[in-house]
Design a protein that fits this description.
alpha/beta, Gyrase A, domain 2, Rossmann fold, Isoleucyl-tRNA Synthetase, Domain 1, globular
Length: about 600
């Protein structure tokens, strides 16, 4: 796609890159009160050249103004306290934005396909436990990133990497043998397994010998015990069925479900390969990987010291990190050409992912990925997010202090039904239930994604399900309002919208005079850049912020500018075009965040 604001940005970036002698120089959007469209900061380059940034900006503005071509969209450059502000030919720009909106239609905001694959690891719960509010962030952040990165042109593969291996499953096997109920397992499998898991830990506090019994049960599973394996597979099947049913309510569908146990054999082989290449070493009978203090994550801060990563215990068994590394190898081999492996996991796992990053980096340096042509450093990208906690403390499955995700979504829908019934009492019950599903679940998703992912969230019904201010219902209602306005337009006006002509654009631009109309159209022009920014920063909240600003601009436009009662046909067509495009972008942007827009509210 050839978006007009992207072209202007590229031209300004090229000028700055040539002047500063460095690729990808910083180009910013100036404050909202400025009429400039971009600004080039000169401070860093001035520091390198030991000159004054204000003087440098003055000189660059004069130089770049002299080089402007007659056909350029850029009108002039102006210095401003160490910045070079970029001004454009406003009417020409508005016409180009209108043409972009019309030409690209429902694809507006998408970018051409990039021959690069990004694999996203998200949700990834342990089997035999219900999804809780603690799983919410990984699931919806991961899905939003998948949607946004696909819009940016990447080939994206989403993987749900389920934990189904380790001593904890020995605990569950032992607990079911002692206290399990076949009827409960058939009727409420996940709830029954959770009760057994919590019961085991309570009893193990009193009788620590139960831990040895659990290890023995897991060893029988490892050795292929028919009874243990059959029961474990039942636990696995019931869990996956329940997980997929719950996440479907959030609009999530995994491309692949991978199980940790599937990589046990490859993990054992990998340990030998790492030893042979000198990446791993023996230490007190165990096999470890030692690291230099290297960690590139931007947030949170790296740990002060990085202990070695244990990949095989002294008794010869592998661990979760070994299977995680084996899984990473499989992703690189299967989904070539891989650009990044993203892991959407809570920030408390920073140390572990710094170890994983370093292990993969050592493997890259020693030629592990030559077959996949992986030469760039840092193929693993950790996407940390803050924790979700209850007002009473951290969520803990072992202690039974947990809020189930299904319960949260049920409550969201119930509260939405009450509000919709109050606002629209004549809406049929079935229709109200459908709207409540979209509004309630959308409110939960947006309450999370509208915040910087690194921030911690204290679980609170009133905050997560607020229906005013910067919320999904506010954005959804803005999109519905656009549809209502269009529905009231005359058949002739609707036909003109559905059969656009390039000849209409100059007449429409001539009618776009009001500040509110110009602001709204300019904001619509920034939608592709909002997607690109969210993709580049792995930041869904950047897109959410854009959508909220768009809805606010629509509100100002709707309040100040008459649409259906415009005095001329050209003005009415221009304003209806703005309304149609705004509704389309709102629906599209919300969909990228995983939020559906109802037809009515």
């Amino acid at each position: 796609m050839n978006y007009v604001l992207d072209r202007i940005y590229a031209d300004v970036e090229s000028l700055a890159a040539t002047e500063f002698g460095q690729p990808n120089p910083e180009v910013r959007r100036p404050p909202k009160e400025s009429e400039a469209i971009y600004a080039v900061p000169c401070f860093q380059y001035a520091k390198e050249k030991n000159t004054n940034p204000i003087k440098l900006a003055d000189g660059l503005s004069a130089k770049w103004n002299q080089g402007l071509q007659a056909g350029s969209l850029i009108e002039r450059f102006e210095p401003a306290r160490g910045y070079v502000n970029v001004f454009v030919k406003k009417k020409t720009l508005l016409a180009r934005i209108l043409k972009n909106l019309r030409d690209f239609g429902e694809d507006y905001g998408n970018y051409p396909e990039i021959n690069k694959t990004i694999v996203v690891d998200y949700c990834s719960p342990n089997i035999a436990k219900p999804l809780s509010v603690g799983h919410l962030r990984s699931t919806i952040i991961g899905q939003a990133l998948i949607n946004i990165l696909r819009a940016r042109g990447y080939r994206v593969v989403g993987i749900n990497f389920l934990g189904d291996w380790g001593t904890q499953f020995g605990k569950l096997l032992y607990a079911f043998e002692q206290w399990g109920n076949e009827k409960k397992l058939a009727e409420e499998p996940i709830q029954h397994l959770l009760e057994l898991y919590v019961r085991f830990h309570k009893k193990a506090k009193i009788n620590p010998a139960l831990e040895d019994d659990a290890r023995a049960a897991f060893k029988r599973l490892q050795q292929g015990g028919e009874k243990e394996r059959a029961l474990w597979q039942r636990f696995r099947g019931s869990s996956l069925e329940a997980f997929e049913k719950t996440v479907a309510r959030l609009g999530v569908k995994f491309d692949h479900n991978w199980f940790e146990s599937e990589f046990e054999e490859r993990a054992r082989e990998l340990v030998d390969e790492l030893l042979a290449k000198g990446i791993a070493e023996e230490s007190e009978g165990a096999i470890i990987i030692r690291f230099k203090p290297l960690w590139p994550a931007e947030s949170p801060e790296p740990p002060p010291a990085q202990p070695p990563l244990v990949i095989r215990k002294s008794d010869g068994t592998t661990l979760y990190p070994t299977r995680d590394l084996a899984s990473a190898l499989e992703r690189i081999e299967r989904f070539q050409p891989v650009h990044r492996l993203l892991y959407a996991v809570a920030s408390e796992q920073t140390l572990y992912f710094s170890q994983l990053w370093n292990a993969l980096e050592e493997m890259r340096k020693r030629g592990f990925f030559k077959h996949a042509k992986i030469n760039q450093p840092g193929i693993l990208k950790y996407i940390p997010f803050g924790m979700v906690s209850l007002p009473t403390g951290k969520i803990s499955t072992r202690e039974g202090r947990i809020v189930y995700l299904d319960e949260l979504l049920d409550e969201a829908e119930r509260r939405a039904q009450e509000i919709i019934k109050e606002k629209n009492p004549d809406m049929p019950k079935d229709a109200r239930a459908q709207v409540a599903r979209k509004v309630g679940i959308g409110a939960v998703i947006y309450a999370d994604l509208s915040q910087d992912r690194i921030k911690d969230i204290v679980f609170d019904w009133s905050k997560m399900l607020a229906f005013e201010g910067n919320s999904a219902p506010y954005l959804q209602y803005a999109a519905v309002r656009c549809a209502r306005i269009l529905a009231k337009a005359s058949p002739e006006d609707r036909k003109r919208l559905e059969e656009p002509k390039d000849a209409d654009i100059p007449r429409m631009v001539a009618e776009i005079e009001e500040p509110e109309s110009i602001e709204l159209l300019m904001h619509l022009g920034r939608f592709p850049q909002a997607i690109a920014e969210a993709a580049e920063r792995y930041a869904p909240h950047a897109l959410a912020s854009y959508l909220y600003d768009l809805a606010a601009a629509l509100s100002r436009f709707y309040t100040e500018v008459p649409v259906l009662k415009a005095q001329t046909d050209a003005a009415r067509l221009a304003r209806l075009t703005l309304v149609e495009a705004t509704g389309r972008v709102l629906r599209r942007g919300l969909a990228l965040l995983g939020i559906e827009t109802p037809e009515e509210m």
